[in-house]
Amino acid sequence: MVTTDRPSVGCACCSRRRFLAGCAGAAGAGALAPVLGCGAAPPAPPGPPVRVRVVYSLHAAVQDRPDWPNKGFDFRPVMEAINAALAAGCPGFTFLPAMASGPEQAKRLLEEDAKADPPVDGYLVYQMNCWNRVVQEIAKTGKPVLYADFLYAGSGGFLVYSAAFLRQGAKNVGFIASSRLEDVVEAARGFGAAKAGGAGYDFAAATARVRAARTPAAGDLACAPDPVQAPQPGETIRRLKASKILSVGDNKRSGPAAPFFEIPLEHVTFGEVNDAWKAADPEAAKAVADRWRKSAAAVEGVSREVLESSAAMYLGMKKILETHQANAITINCLGGFYGNHIHAYPCLGFHELCNEGLVGACENDVPSTASMLLFSALTGGRTGFISDPVIDVAKRQIIYAHCVAPNRAFGPKGVTNPFEILTHSEDRQGASVRSILPAGYMTTTIKVKPDRKEIIFHRAKAVGNDRSDRACRTKLCGEPVGDLEKLFAEWDRWGWHRVTAYGDLQAPVEAVAAAMGYTIVREA
């Protein structure tokens, strides 16, 4: 719905192109549906128009590199839909859209705004890619800043940066993460109150009230039976000490390292992994590829050659684990592949290893690998999976997203769930996994931090799977047990990754933590 006093959406900086201007229609609204309800727009605030700079924090209007949401993603219709929704939902406001890829562009934009007459009253910064550091510069102005996540696109940076603002007690920075664009519009209306309230106005607190009001009440958190007979803490610790992690990060480090979380650790080079891939038996690789193709619910965008190459990588990793007498391997997969050090993604191999009760872990993330081994030791082989979580207040959900997950959520002897073989999402290359994980069960999410002797912890009921094409392929949706708002607070201290496994594992995790002298950090 467009009012007759529609605000300007033209860009004040001609270098940012006119495609952002004049968003009268809802072109591209499907990417953000639903956009706005059919009710009347609220009345315009009294006085001069509220001027808000909308800053899209992204690499380029059409994404030119691997990152969330994916290479080649066209943000233009998305930005047009956001501009149109803001214009329709905030009468009496003037929105000034622009793009910035990093701090230098943000500084130049602020220099332009410092000369504007009338001045800009506040900033809406939309995190469209994960790690572009734009909002930090904008926040330094002291003006009200609404920080919004374009879900499955900017979520990593959004969570880490938002947590940092919370820890700093930044009263001028409020944030919103919602699949419902109406929630962003509702929060943006707060710029009017901020302008009227003056310098002492607590914009962060006002935005938090909007988040709380727009978050649904907790649903039914009763779960299907899933008993887990965990061993005593002493036996769990013994199993950890009997494990070994192989860390593959570069071609310079090899050999034993100091134990991590009581677990022996050894460095292995990319070269050794690549040699094992090349040495894999072609016939055995074909047999594995045949099995994957037969058992997958779908294979899309992945050639037979890529499938066999992925199978050879699985066989190569299995051989390396045997050679080093290890049961866990974690590889800097993206760095290795983009650096031409390895020639197949290990995603399908990680999937297969985890189905067997071994651990294949992404991105050379040793803390998450150790967390997977802890889960396996507690449950008889439920390794869980690493994820890049996303929070959606509109659904009161946390979504665990990655291009790898087992399809034996209940361990090597448990039932299987459907899975699909697709390209790796961020670059649309190689082969990865969408595991359609079972709903209705309790899950436990952790990550260990030995240098602080802490284990972060929350639980969530698995409620479904999101098939959005943006970002990673597997997306398990969970409704957290506890306070969703609290879940925003710890990402700056713990990083983005978490490890999620099926089972209500609160008691055994607490028991192991107590036995090892660790503190449980409850993030929900």
Counting DSSP E segments of at least 2 residues, the number of strands comes to 20
User: Percent helix among the residues?
Assistant: 25-40%
Gross morphology is globular
Q: What is the chains' assembly state?
A: single chain
Strand content: 15-25%
Number of helices: 16
Class per helix and strand makeup? alpha/beta
N- to C-terminal distance: 38 Å
Number of domains: 2
Uncertain residue ranges: 1-39
From the alpha carbons, calculate the radius of gyration and give it in angstroms. Answer: 24 Å
| Major sheet description | 6 strands, antiparallel, barrel
Strand order in the largest sheet: 12-13-18-17-16-19
Q: Whole-number average pLDDT?
A: 92
Description:
This protein has 524 residues and is an alpha/beta fold. It has 2 domains: 14-214, Rossmann fold, CATH 3.40.50; 233-522, no CATH class. The chain is 32% helix and 23% strand. The chain contains 16 helices and 20 strands. The chain has helices spanning 76-89, 103-114, 135-139, 155-168, 181-188, 190-197, 203-214, 233-241, 270-279, 282-295, 304-323, 333-338, 347-355, 366-379, 491-494, 506-516; strands at residues 50-57, 93-100, 122-127, 145-149, 173-177, 245-248, 255-260, 263-268, 298-299, 328-331, 359-362, 385-392, 397-402, 419-424, 429-435, 442-449, 454-465, 474-480, 498-502, 519-522. The strands form 4 sheets. It has a 6-stranded antiparallel β-barrel. A 5-stranded parallel sheet has the order 2-1-3-4-5, sandwiched between helices. Strand 3 (122-127), helix 3 and strand 4 (145-149) form a beta-alpha-beta unit. Helix 1 (76-89) crosses helix 5 and helix 8 (233-241) crosses helix 16. It is globular, with a radius of gyration of 24 Å. The relative contact order is 0.11. Residues 1-39 have low confidence and may be disordered.
